[in-house]
Amino acid sequence: MSPAGRSGRPDAPLHLVFVPFLARSHFAPLAAKAADACGQRVGATATTAAIVTTPHFAALAPPCVPVHVAGFRCPGGHEDFSQLPDDEASSAPAFFSAAEAALAPALAAVLRAQDGPAAVVSDAVLYWVPRVARECGAPHVTFHTIGAFAASAMVAVHLHRPEAFLDPFVVPGGFPRHVKLRRAQINEEALAHLPLFRAAEAQSYAVAFNSFAALEANFAAYYQSQLAGRPKKVFLVGPALAAAASPRAVTGGAERDPILQWLDGRPAGSVVYVCFGSTCALGESQLRELATGLRASGRTFLWVIPAARGEGGAAREERASSHGMVVAGRWAPQAEILAHRAVGGFVTHCGWNSVLEAVRAGVPLATWPLRAEQFVNEAFLVEVLRVGVRVREVAREEAGLEALVPAGAVTRAVGRLMGDGQGEAEAVAGRRARARELGSAARAAVAEGGSSCGDWARLVEELKALHGRDSDPQV
C-alpha cells in the first residue's frame, strides 16, 4: 500500500485521523473537532474523520465519528491518565509507554489502509505520533488542549529562565504582557518534559490551539516565534468542546436534566456554579470549608462534584436545599449550565476546557487552581482578561499552595464575584461586561465566517494541497 496521501483519487475527501491523549480533559476537545470534521466540507475541501483510541475512551466518542479501537493494558488498572493517584506519579512513564504500545500500531494500520489523502491531528503530549505519521507519509498537526497563553508562558520560562528567579517573577523572553508568576505555580514536571514535546512538535506540519483569535492571538503569535525546527503556522481553531461533553450513553436521552430544570426556577444571574472538573478532587477537610463558605456567602449555589469522594458531609448529597443544589457522583451538562441565564458566576479549578466554556458563556469566574497549568490560567483570567477573582488569597499562597483554603476566603471570593454591596458594584459590572464581550467573540469565532472557522478551513486546505506533492509532507 502506498503511504497515506500518496495514492487514490485526487478528488477524494481528506481523511483526518485524530489521536487524543488518554485523559478525559484531553480527549474532549479533539473528539469535538473530529465531530466537526466528520463528513463536512471545509472551504473547498471535503473531510472525513476517525479517532484512534482505547475501549474506555471509545465509549465517550461522539456517535458520528468512526473509532478505531486499540487494546490497552493500563498500568495499575487506570485507563484514564488523570485518574492516576497522586501517590502513583512514578507510574506515569509506564502509562505513556503503554499508550504508545497500544495506539502507535493502530494508527499506522489506519494510515496504511487509507486509499486517499490523509493527515493526523494528535495531542501535543503524544510525542511519538509525528514519527508514525512521517513513516506513513501523512502530514501531522500538533493540537494543544491548553491555551496559547499557558503554553507560551511555559516555553518562555523554559527558554529564558535565569539561574534564580525572584519570587514572584515576571515571565521572561519578551512575553507579550507583563505578567508575574510564583515559582510554586510553575509545573516543573511539565518543564522537564518540554524539550521532548518541542522536538516532536518540530516534526509537525502545523500547530493548532483550542482557542480563538480575540482571546489569544498575540500569545499564539509569540508561541509561533518560539517554535523549534522549520517555520510553521499556528492556527486557532476553538472553542471545540460541546460535541464531546457527554458520553454516548447520555446523549440519547431527551429529558431535560434536573439540574437545568432547577436552574429554570432561579432568577437571572443569581446562582454561583461550583465545579472542579471531573478529576480534581478536594480533601474532606477542604470540602467542609468550601461548603461552609458557600453557605455563609448568602448566595444560591449549584455545586457539582462529578465523582463523590470521602466519607459523609454535604459532598455526597444530591438534592436541593435552602442554600442551593448539590449534585454528586454523576456527569453534569456543564456547558449548558454555564449558558443558563440563572448562572452569574463560576468557581472553577481553571482547567482550560472549563475556562473556555465559561468564556463562551460570558460568565465571570472565581479562580481556584489545583495543579498543572491551572495556576498560569488563573493569571491569564485575573491579570490579563480581568474576568476573574482569586479564591486563594496571597497570604495563603505564601503559606503553600497545598494549604487549606478557609471558609472565609470562599465567602469573600463569592462576594467579590457576585457583588456583596460593599463597594464591589463597579468591579462586578466591569468583569461581567468584559466576560460578555469575550462570550460574543467566542461564539462569533466558531460561527460561519468566524476567525476559528477560517483558520480551520485554511489548515484543512493546506493539508489537502500536500497530497501528491513530491516533497516531504512534514515540511
Can you give a write-up of this model?
This protein is α/β, with parallel strands linked by helices and 475 residues long. The protein has two domains: 14-243 and 447-466, Rossmann fold; 255-443, Rossmann fold, CATH 3.40.50.2000. The protein is 41% helix and 15% strand. It is built from 17 helices and 17 strands. The protein has helices at residues 24-37, 55-58, 92-113, 129-135, 148-160, 188-201, 213-225, 248-251, 258-264, 284-297, 334-339, 352-361, 374-384, 394-399, 407-418, 425-446, 451-465, and strands at 14-19, 40-42, 45-53, 67-69, 118-123, 140-144, 169-170, 180-181, 206-209, 234-236, 271-275, 300-305, 319-320, 324-328, 343-348, 365-367, 388-390. Helix 3 packs parallel to helix 4, helix 10 packs across helix 15 and helix 12 (352-361) packs across helix 16 (425-446). The chain is globular, with a radius of gyration of 22 Å. The relative contact order is 0.13.
